[in-house]
TrEMBL record:
GO terms for cellular component: nucleus. Belongs to the HAD-like hydrolase superfamily. This is Haloacid dehalogenase-like hydrolase domain-containing protein 3. Pfam families: Hydrolase.
């Protein structure tokens, strides 16, 4: 069956870009550079704990609760170090500011195999293109510094949309920005619940990037699964 697709929307983290090294390693290196002694092996688990607690207490960067996404992140970083045994204080506040900036830098991110090439080829075939990502306002800068921003007609973050995937409102806003009905749009992402299932719940098509080490999702027909991004073109051209 012909997929009459006019709009492709894309998740970013672990779909187009991934971190060059685990958060714990980045945090440990920055702390060492500032003479802060923190056990590096404690930082990964501490980050997951701090991030999880903050996400439950202040969903989607605390937007509805009067926080800025910047403040949200600075709190997560400080709390990560406190949980790992550091003393909260001026040095930690400075470190948090530095790490907040570091995550805007191309040194922090790398492209997934085939990302730029696939985006370029999709553009050339005339698809409208957009980003739909649970991210904060830094995403525009990250996409620009990693040389991917020019492929997209719009970049929609959960911070800008006021709703985070899997909430249908962020996908509805993307369809409005793309100017198409859901059956003419497909979303590409690596997360079954937030990307594949959520897009299909609003009537969009979905493609699930199956990254190595992820358990296969039994509910996804094989023709919706992408072993790599380069597999997408053959499927959207059907």
């Amino acid at each position: 069956a012909m997929l009459r697709l006019h709009l492709l929307t894309w998740d970013v983290k672990d779909t187009l870009l991934r971190l060059r090294r685990p958060v714990g390693q980045s945090y440990a290196a920055e702390a060492r550079a500032r003479g802060l002694r923190v056990p590096p092996e404690a930082l990964g688990p501490a980050f997951r704990e701090a991030y999880g607690a903050q996400s439950r207490r202040f969903p989607n960067y605390g937007l509805g609760q009067g926080l800025s996404s910047r403040q949200w992140w600075l709190d997560v970083v400080r709390q990560t170090f406190v949980l790992a045994g550091a003393q909260d204080g001026a040095a930690l506040a400075e470190l948090a500011e530095q790490l907040y900036l570091d995550y805007c830098s191309p040194h922090t991110w790398e492209e997934l195999p085939g990302a730029a090439d696939t985006l370029r080829r999709c553009r050339r075939r005339g698809f409208r293109m957009g980003v739909v990502s649970n991210f904060d306002g830094r995403l525009e800068a990250i996409l620009t510094c990693c040389n991917l921003r020019q492929h997209f007609d719009f970049v929609l973050t959960s911070e800008a949309a006021g709703a985070a995937k899997p909430d249908r409102r962020i996908f509805e806003e993307a369809l409005r920005l793309g100017g198409v009905p859901p059956e003419q749009a497909a979303h590409v992402g690596d997360d079954y619940g937030r990307d594949y299932r959520a897009a299909r719940a609003v009537g969009m098509h979905g493609f699930l990037l199956r990254t190595a080490g992820r358990d296969p999702e039994p509910q996804v027909p094989p023709e919706h699964v992408l072993p790599t991004l380069s597999h997408l073109l053959a499927l959207v051209e059907k």
